[in-house]
């Protein structure tokens, strides 16, 4: 009898842990389908939603969670939902939930059939998910910018290359603060490159190109500082070595490299890095996170050393790393 009661309490514990998923799902759906904007404008969702029963269930869930507020026969989003999960808001974080719900969770759910050999590993589609990933990467950029700015200043960079520049978040802010420095950003994704160009169109000291580093030599010109942020997991351990060899030819002898990356099995953020590593590993074209030791080996491969390794988001295992 005692064993059965323990079983029940254990089941309740696991069920309770899932309660935290409901607000995430509700906010994701409201952002993804633009419900929060529509409710803010009209107090209701239009007839374009065909299954009204499901819509009513979503609204009732929102009222229970406090995501929605009722005023008479109208329903409006809470101030939190309006600010952070409205597509019209300039501080929206909804893309983070889109990435998690449409990319990360489905990938983890594929683990079982992949493990059993019933299906091949997934393929990450940069064209489909590249813009959302670049947007969510901007959250890390907001946190890590001060560390990157310090690296650029300490190295004394006059020419800076950002490999995998994304939406040009780092470049735009740095170029505004350092108008006399020259910045070049390269990325593989055409849509992301177009966004980066739009974001830097008023900055004469910035050049953005759609390029593959492995096939690009910048006409023999080198850089004092090279940034690689949130990038290493797109390359296998062998490809990372080749990447460093490419970088060696683009880096001044007295230059430095700025890395922003999660580290696997580091002192901080082991749970997040483990989850992220599982997500990466189920894809045939994404690769496990590096460890601190891996980064030291990469630096040594081009005759350099890791001179700084500091956590910037401890709960996520994200680090700012300098190689000179």
From TrEMBL:
InterPro entries listed in its UniProt record: Methyltransf_25 (IPR041698), SAM-binding_MTase (IPR053173), SAM-dependent_MTases_sf (IPR029063)
Pfam families registered for this protein in UniProt: Methyltransf_25
Entry's transmembrane regions? none
The region annotated as signal peptide is none
Q: Which domain of life is it from?
A: Bacteria
- Which intervals hold domain Methyltransferase? 160-255
Q: Which SUPFAM superfamilies match?
A: S-adenosyl-L-methionine-dependent methyltransferases (SSF53335)
Enumerate the PANTHER family for this protein: METHYLTRANSFERASE TYPE 11 (PTHR45128), S-ADENOSYLMETHIONINE-DEPENDENT METHYLTRANSFERASE RV2258C (PTHR45128:SF1)
Q: Which protein are we looking at?
A: Methyltransferase domain-containing protein
Biological source species: Chryseomicrobium excrementi
